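Re: the request from the purification team.
They wanted to know what the chain is likely to look like in 3D before they choose a buffer screen. I agreed to run a prediction and write the result into the notebook, where they can find it.
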Amino acid sequence: MRSYKNGAVLSSQTLGPLMEDSYATPYLVIHRADLHDVLLEEAQRLGVSIRLDCQFTHINFSQPSIQLADGGNIIADVILGADGERSASRDTLLGHHSPLFDSGNHVFRITVNIDDVAHHEDLVDLVRPPCLNLWVGPGANAMSYALKRDNLFNVVTTCAHDISTTVQHAPRKVDIEEVRKAFSQWDPKLQALLGIAQECSKWTLFEAPEAASWIHPDGKFALIGDAAHAMLPFLAQGAAMVFEDAGVLGTLLSKIQHRKQIPDILLMYERLRKPRTTALRDRSRAMGKIYAYEDGPLQEERDRQLQNHAPFDGYPNFLADQGFQRLLFGYNAIEEANSAWNIYLKGEQPSTRGCWNANAWH
């Protein structure tokens, strides 16, 4: 973490060895497209049927089935709404439109060739060795990191916008001078990085409402991922939450003995996941405010804690907060699901339908 004024390092945390020593896994940064490729390859290997351009017009929650705009009808044992923060399936579940609301921030994104950064004598420490840099300042923050795909270096900035500003629902190209002007009083190193860029995209950072319940009362439909719990990006945990959802729900479904257990499985999934995702949504929103303190007492105390104080619960560098670090990275979705299933088989999961017992299957 760096000061916006001069780039002075306020706090740092080594992630590679820590992750492998503490959690037996590396800390990786991956391009979304590369991640999609990995998931697509595995889905195809498993024989998953992937159909594109399938807009739905209706969900029959009790059957359950999906009516497609082209007239097709898909019948299933269970339906998962995984259609992102602008979820049409969430609206269908709620019975009304749940509009996104403006978070009060715009996002600017630029990408440059990593070699251009490495060859700039004032910027080489941003890429050698690989690291993530986060500048924090009044009403804004800026993050930089390398991406393997196409040898890219990514810079993403978030800054507060005036209440009268027109919102943008999707990224669009803007004049690079707009972001340069927004950060003209920031660290010369960041200004030099922006100076390399040739183009920039911009969009409004929206928040999505969280449904009171992710599952339909009939017990054959559930929301998953951003459709259920989209969160602001200030913890960089949105995608991680989706994989945790999949780990919990996939593990529970792998144990199913009869389709009558599906409603109980969806209930356990929501019970395991909702408190965690809600807490992290709230923490992410709070971190965004901490990063954006205006110059003054709050900013000064934040910077003092980062520079001169050992990490503590609620530390402004959340990756250095050992308790929160364990909360994030020590979570084992498969173990959580296994534990819940074992309790279920004892008949001790509250508000379930008794289908742990084979006598209830008939």
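For the purification team: The mean pLDDT is 94.
Please add any questions underneath this entry.
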